[in-house]
Amino acid sequence: MAPQHPGTDPAPDRTSAPGAIRVRPGHRDLNARSDPADQRELVMENTGDRPVQIGSHIHLPDVNAALAFDREHARGFRLDVPPGTSLRFEPGASRRVAIVRFGGLGRVPGLQIRRDGTDGALLPGAR
Questions:
Q1: pLDDT of the chain along its 127 residues, tens only?
Q2: For residue 99, how many other CB atoms are within 10 A of its CB?
């Protein structure tokens, strides 16, 4: 086996690294919906004294109670951000966010939906 010398090996191929995402060149519409009613905006404010972070696929009415917003208007919705990302709200911070209705059957396996106490429940308004 040839000796390895740090810094002399060629750069790793980033497309074959664990967890790498490989896509064809071009434009991708994430979270695209055909019905305009499936996309909304709302204002959220962190009324707490600690930062709050919301992940891309959490059912919005069930997020931290320190976030003030119209939870009923957000039933069946999640943040309109790329999968695996999140938004962070510092204490006292307020911002307008885009939200999108859960797609498909509206099921998110492993997600606790407190509204009816089931896991991966069919969310209200899912199509």
A1: 454 555 555 555 555 666 566 778 888 776 777 788 899 999 999 999 999 999 988 889 889 999 999 999 998 899 998 888 899 999 999 999 999 998 877 766 666 555 554 444 445 555 4
A2: 21
Which value, to the nearest 10 degrees, does the dihedral of the CA atoms of residues 61, 64, 68, 72 take? 10
The three-state secondary structure class of 36 is helix
Note whether 44 and 66 are within 8 A (CB): no
φ, ψ for residue 89, nearest 5 deg: -115, 115
Spatial separation of the C-alpha atoms in residues 20 and 4, rounded to whole Å: 24
0.85 exceeded by pTM: no
Separation CA 104–CA 82 (nearest Å): 17
For residue 47, give Cα distances in angstroms to 55, 69, 93, 108, 111. Answer: 18, 10, 8, 28, 25
Give the SS3 label for residue 15: coil
Query: Residue 37: left (phi > 0), alpha (psi -120 to 50), or beta?
Result: alpha
